[in-house]
Amino acid sequence: MWGSYRLVCPRNVAVDLIQTPGLRAKPGRLQWYGEKCIISNQMEALEQMVEMTAKLFECDRDEMYSYILRLCKETNDWQKAEATWTKMQEENVIPRERTLRLLADILKSNGQVVPFEVPEVNLHVFKVLKGLLRTVHNLFS
After folding, report:
1. In DSSP terms, which residues pair with 24 in a beta bridge?
2. Taking the domains of the chain in order of start, what are their residue ranges?
3. CB 38 within 8 A of CB 64
4. Measured in Å, how far apart are the chain's first and last C-alpha atoms?
5. How many separate helices (H) and strands (E) can be counted in the chain?
6. Residue 115's closest CA among 86, 75, 77, 90?
7. Which residues on adjacent β-strands are paired with residue 57?
8. Banded model confidence at residue 120, pLDDT cuts 50, 70, 90
9. Which Gene3D superfamilies match (predicted)?
10. What is the DSSP letter of 62?
C-alpha cells in the first residue's frame, strides 16, 4: 500500500495516510514489499517503509528493521547495519534473537566489535522438534 502511495503521493501525504488512526498493519503486504526491496537492492525504499510504518498499529518493528539488516548483509554494508541498530535502540525496539544474530554476523564478518551479547542457537531444541515432526509424519503416513 505505502509503495503505491510513495509513487503517487507527496511523501507527507503518504505518511499521513499510513499513520491514519485505526489503520492496521498487513504483515503479508509488508513482507511482500520488504522482500521486493531486498531482491531489487532498494535500500532507500526499505528505509522509507520502516520510517513510514513507525506509528502503524500492530506493525512488527523488529521485522521491519530486519529487512534493512538482510539487505545490509547482502550488500556487506556494516555501517548501515550499525546505524540501523542505533535507530532500533532509539525507537526502543526489542530485537528477536535472529535479528541479533544477523546483526552480529554482519559486524563480525567486517571485523567490527559486536556491542551486545550474541544469543546462541539451542541445537537441542531443534533436535527435539525434528524428532517430533518425524513422529507426526510417521503417524499420518
Report:
1. 57
2. 1-59, 76-141
3. no
4. 42
5. 8, 0
6. 86
7. 24
8. confident
9. Tetratricopeptide repeat domain
10. H
